[in-house]
Amino acid sequence: MILTGPEITAAKHDGRLVISPFEPDQVNPNSYNVRLGPTLLTYTATEIDAHRPNPTHEVEIGQDGYVLQPGELYLGHTIEHVGSNTFVPLLFGRSSVGRLGLFVEITAPIGDIGFHGQWTLMLSPIRPLRVYAGMKIGQIMFFLSTGAIDLYRGKYQAAVGAQSSAYWRDVTKPRTVAS
């Protein structure tokens, strides 16, 4: 079951859900709007290697915004710290942002129950697009889980700011593909 806007507000106030800062005007009928934080990360290597840490460059979004370029992956983050030990969060781009040609979080919208922190956003524009820190960029929905709960204890816990991939931490040795 999905939480309605009033239930999101109630769950925030009784502690079943953490959203900080919480703004009542960001509550929707069945989701909560999240805003783009002030920094972006881009990968600097021509080739990204899934088995190694990859160098990044941090960009500060200025008062005049920042123009995202097609063909580039930008890692942004939410201003809001979000988490719950009760509900499963899913984050999607807002439809009004999608209508500007910006893909937000299309490959990994589900969050783990027990994760608490700022969400890293995968941003991919189809045309040059100026974005601004603080703009409403996504919306999080919360679902009630059933069954025993095993809280998230992973590598992105308590994230602050955009997080580059830590996939390489899961790799014990390179794997070869059989032909």
TrEMBL record:
InterPro entries: dCTP_deaminase, dUTPase-like_sf, dUTPase_trimeric. Keywords: Hydrolase, Nucleotide metabolism. The lineage of its organism: Bacteria, Bacillati, Actinomycetota, Actinomycetes, Kitasatosporales. It comes from Streptomyces bauhiniae. PANTHER family: DCTP DEAMINASE. NCBIfam families: dCTP_deam. It comes from the Bacteria. Its EC number is 3.5.4.13. This is dCTP deaminase. GO terms for biological process: dUTP biosynthetic process; nucleobase-containing small molecule interconversion. GO terms for molecular function: dCTP deaminase activity. It is an enzyme of class 3 (hydrolase). Gene3D superfamilies: 2.70.40.10.
